[in-house]
Amino acid sequence: MKLVIIGGLSGGMTVASQFRRLDKESEIIVYDKNPYVSFANCGLPYYLSREVAKREDLIARTPNQLNDQGITVHTEHEVISVNDQENYVTVKNLQTGETFNDYYDKLVVSPGGEARTLDTVKDAKQSFIFQHLHHLDQMDAYISENDVKHAVVIGTGFIGLEVTEQLKKRGLNVTVIQHNDKVYSTLEQHFTEHIKQTFDEQDIHLMLNTTPKSLDGTTLTLDNDETIDAELIVQAIGILPRTQFLESSNIVLDNGFIPIDEYGLTNIDNVYAIGDAVETNYQHVPNKKVSVALAWPAHRLAYVIANHLAEKNNHKHDGLLSVSILRFFDITVGSMGLSLEDLEGEDYIIVEQTQNNKAGYMPDATPLSMRIYVDTHTRKILRASGVGKNGLDKRLDILSTLTRLGGTVDDLIDVEVSYAPPFSSPKDIINMLGYKTIGKLK
Amino acid sequence: MKLVIIGGLSGGMTVASQFRRLDKESEIIVYDKNPYVSFANCGLPYYLSREVAKREDLIARTPNQLNDQGITVHTEHEVISVNDQENYVTVKNLQTGETFNDYYDKLVVSPGGEARTLDTVKDAKQSFIFQHLHHLDQMDAYISENDVKHAVVIGTGFIGLEVTEQLKKRGLNVTVIQHNDKVYSTLEQHFTEHIKQTFDEQDIHLMLNTTPKSLDGTTLTLDNDETIDAELIVQAIGILPRTQFLESSNIVLDNGFIPIDEYGLTNIDNVYAIGDAVETNYQHVPNKKVSVALAWPAHRLAYVIANHLAEKNNHKHDGLLSVSILRFFDITVGSMGLSLEDLEGEDYIIVEQTQNNKAGYMPDATPLSMRIYVDTHTRKILRASGVGKNGLDKRLDILSTLTRLGGTVDDLIDVEVSYAPPFSSPKDIINMLGYKTIGKLK
């Protein structure tokens, strides 16, 4: 059997190595348009400030290691079309310009996303996107070689915030520009006040409701005619699924995303899809679709696809809760479940609780604020979110586990947290959210 | 209605205040044999080193606050017998010696445990137990007034370890004595190697397989004839349910513990029991009995009892998972589910995993070791345990939530943890335990 994989990061490469463990015989070929594969995407920002001290720590497996595993990788090879009738992909060698066809028995499509850019700035030599290892390398070298002192980050999504934090920690002055008045718009805006406060504390200049109008050298003029010093510009305005090349095929797309079934299969019976470009459903609200561009879902689906390819166990993918979390300096923000937009049409009450993350008499206790959106009919949690300095991650994990297992707010009060004063409270915020909700719902 | 409560700590006092919120009319009387009520038991050790800086931070509610709430508290009043036929308790005023009867409509029994003592040392002026606020006060004053430099802690349960840590942090030399070769015997002994290593690192003298033979002044002679300097002796060798006074009644006891039903009722229909002296069942293995002397279960059961007393909601207590956790200097140990002894007769496999608590390239990633005991028939987790510097608490919380909701190891691989490099891994230890177990079981 010959397996061709398009894309050599979390999704595609994890399928490759998991499948190789289950099947020693089949041929595995990976094409990736970028110069590097198998690196830790999520870790890239942390090298900017050298919080991650060594670049090589970001490499999961080297080309040699992959080769030793029996995985053939072709970097800087872009798959430009798929012929699912005759089972081949057309590949362009980006170094030589030549194209060729490669036949497959099974195909895994893991193309990821394409970072969006801004016409006003994208062609300037100091403009970068931040998505792949070579982007990090380029930006890192540019900062050093040009002794950059002032950076502009456009966008306040998680990449924008992570890069902002890291550039600041590297010693740069940073200005952050956001086109509307919403910082980290996936979170409730009253929670993001903590992020705005952190901008102030860290002396980072946040400019809301504005966009770049023109760039002249290192002078960036905004649409309100203010000018700012922009020796470095990071465009962090989101990603789009990189699936245009699939329009050559019969693979169904939905707004550019690839719908998949419970085994990761597309509508074509020997073509799987994985990673940032796939569309699945919320596990707890199966009639609503969701795309989650994070590493965790890619790793889970890789297991399902690898086992299905190898005809081993039939573990099924049953959707995602879309848990996400972000550290921004000393605060953490995160959420689980339906996005704010996807709450539309649901019938819910909101319950919010603020209390210390551990026994209040402990010297390092800090406040944690959480909110849950509870379906008034099923009493299940549709969404949870929060902010705090410590301990948000574990409460989201509890709510994610409870929700995945079909639990309701009535179960919340009985969630037995591991309690000792350094860790939690006998009435943990999770239990209190349960008490409060039951009081409101009954 | 007149409610009498025996015991004014986590169990009894939480019932009192929760019931008061639900019922403004009834009379609530609390008897406690000790001088203080409504303090944070679990926090007491941390005042020894002034990690908790102010003694008043350990007081949950003062007698005046309780009085304002309409809760009448009699401290240093010991209930010496219960007449459940005629519905009265006999109370001894420990200050005057007089006894009297007090009638109740409903009775809540929350007597807690009695710390065990050692005949060899218990009568010495430098010997203490560590259970109540006045014990802390006495020991704290004794250390200061006598400028104590050398302390001996007998026992390596969680009180022994917490007090050892705190005395060391206060600057004392500490010797710890354990009668057998097991440190913190509720945990797997290979995990407790980390505790032993911490003893070494902290320069605390650990003496195993020995017991005190005689005490002469501050010289403690052990059964191996070694002598050690014992200016302060802490007896931390466990607790027994303080239920002897109930032998006057028809309340059923089981090995000294009070069995309760799903509403916290004893066998007598107007007598409830709560706290360290009750016996319930494991939630996930209902045919096995368990007693958990911790604050978390007391707070949960208090809600059930208060609501049942007030004839409000019928939330039921359905047993405990017996989650426990302990910080000892920079390490954390903990467990969930059946005790090592209670595993007997179960049919299980053991799966263990050691990996970093977060993305390995993050500078503060530290190893975490966890073990799960999985029922080979039901595929449910009977017990989990582990050790690590950080992040054990949240993994135990996940396993506790999953187990309470009836989840199996097949659900483990899909537990959607909140992932970003500062918090976890795309293949979190929880997910890895799932993969490993499925591989072993199938």
TrEMBL record, chains A, B:
Belongs to the class-III pyridine nucleotide-disulfide oxidoreductase family. Its EC number is 1.8.1.14. Its cofactor is FAD. Residues 1-287 form the FAD/NAD(P)-binding domain. InterPro entries: FAD-bd_OxRdtase, FAD/NAD-bd_sf, FAD/NAD-binding_dom, FAD/NAD-linked_Rdtase_dimer_sf, Pyr_nucl-diS_OxRdtase_dimer. Residues 326-424 form the Pyridine nucleotide-disulphide oxidoreductase dimerisation domain. NCBIfam families: PRK13512.1. This is CoA-disulfide reductase. It holds the Pfam family Pyr_redox_dim. It comes from the Bacteria. Keywords: FAD, Flavoprotein, Oxidoreductase, Redox-active center. SUPFAM superfamilies: FAD/NAD(P)-binding domain, FAD/NAD-linked reductases, dimerisation (C-terminal) domain. One of its GO terms (molecular function) is CoA-disulfide reductase (NADPH) activity. It is an enzyme of class 1 (oxidoreductase).
